[in-house]
Amino acid sequence: MSDIFEKAEQVLADIHAQAPANAAELEAFRIQYLGTKGLIKGLMEEMRSVPNERKRDYGQLMNRLKQEAETKHDSLKEVFEAQAQSAAGSAIDLSAPGEPMPLGSRHPVAVTMNRIIEIFTRMGFSVADGPEIEDDWHNFTAMNTPEDHPARDMQDTFYVVDAPGMLLRTHTSPVQARVMKNRKPPIRIIAPGRVYRNETISTRSHAQFHQVEGLYIDEGVSFADLKQTLLFFAQEMFGAPKIRLRPSFFPFTEPSAEMDIWLGTDTEKNYRLTKGTGWLEILGCGMVDPQVLENCGIDSKKYSGFAFGMGIERQALRLYEIGDIRLLFENDVRFLRQFASAM
Ligand code: DAH
Fold it and tell me: In this structure, are strands 208-218 and 304-311 parallel, antiparallel, or unpaired?
C-alpha cells in the first residue's frame, strides 16, 4: 500500500521539476498530468485500493497534486499567451487591411470657382493669374482710380508696412492691367482668386473673399457682346431664365452696370435671398474705360472691350443653399464633408 503513496509523491515531485518552455510543451504537460488519461486521473482511480483509514490522507494528497499541476499550467499559459500577443503586435502583418486614410474634399468655394471657370473656358476664355500682394499702380491707378480719387474709399485695404506702395489687392481687376500690358488683343481671360478688404461693417463681412474677373478686348467688342456673354453664364450657372443690367459706377468701366439674375419669388428661399424682388445681384461689369486701355498700352481708338468682376461666396451660398456665409470659413469638417462628391 505504501507504494501507491510513494508513487503519488514521486508524481508530485515530477510536477515541481517540470519546466515547459513554450505553449507546445505546456500542452504536453497538461495531457501528461491533467488529461483524462493522465497520471493524476490514474492515481485517483487507485483510491479504491486504499484502506479506509488512509483514504482521507490519500484524498488530500490527490488534491495537492491536482492543484499544483493546475496552478503551474494556468500561470504558464498566461505567460505564453502574453508573449504571443506582444510578438504579433511588433511584427508587421503584410496581409492586414490598410488603415483607412481620411480623404479631403474640395471646398464649396473652390467647387463654385471651378464651375465658373468651366463655363467661361467653354466660351473661349483662358485663366490668368496675378499676385495677391499687389502694387498700388495695378490695383488702383491703372484701373483709373488715382490716389486722390474718392472711389478708393470704397475699397480700403491692408498696406504692407515695410514696402510702401504695396498692398493686399482689393479686387481681381489688377490682373486686367497685368494681362493687357503683356499681351496683344484679342484678349479673352478670366482671373479667379482671393481678394482683401479692410472692412468691419458687420460680423458677417470678412477681410478676405474670392472673386472672378473677366476681360475681353478686341476690335469692335460691344455692350451686346457683354450682355450675351453674361446671359449665357447666368443660364449655365444657375439656370436663370433672364438677367437684368442696372446702371452703376466703376472707375474702370464706362458705361458700368450691375447684373442681377432672376430667381423669382416662388420659394421662401428665393423670396428671402432677393428680398422679395425676385432679383439677385451677382456681379459688376461694363465697357472697359478707354483710359484703362491707354494706361496699359492698348490703342483705345482701335480696340474696345468689356470687363466684369463677380464675388464667389454669394454664388456658393445660392448654389448649395447654404444659409450662412460664416459656414464657409469655419472649417468645420462636418459641414465640409457634405461636399465630398462635388468637383
Ligand atoms: N472690381 C469690382 C469690385 O471689386 C468689380 C468689377 C466691376 C470688376 C466692374 C469689373 C468691372 O471688371 O467691369 O467691386
Answer: antiparallel
With residue 211 as reference, give the H or E element that holds it.
strand 208-218
Cβ 178 under 6 angstroms from ligand 1: no
Q: What is the CATH number of domain 108-342?
A: 3.30.930.10
130 lines ligand 1 (CB under 6 A): no
Q: How far is the CA of 226 from the centre of ligand 1 (A)?
A: 14
Q: 196 with 169: CB under 8 angstroms?
A: yes
pTM metric for this prediction:
0.71
96-106 pLDDT, tens digit each: 888 888 778 88
Contacts of 325 (CB under 8 A, 6+ apart): 204, 206, 313, 314, 317
Helix (H, G, I), strand (E, B) or coil at 330: coil
Q: Give distance in angstroms: CA of 9 to centre of ligand 1.
A: 103
Tens of pLDDT along 192-241? 999 998 876 444 556 889 999 999 999 999 999 999 999 999 999 999 89
Domain locations in the chain as residue ranges:
2-90, 108-342
Q: How far is the CA of 290 from the centre of ligand 1 (A)?
A: 16
Residue with cell 448654389: 319
Q: Hey, what amino acid is at 83?
A: Q
pLDDT-wise least confident of 70-74, 112-116, 221-225, 326-330 = 326-330
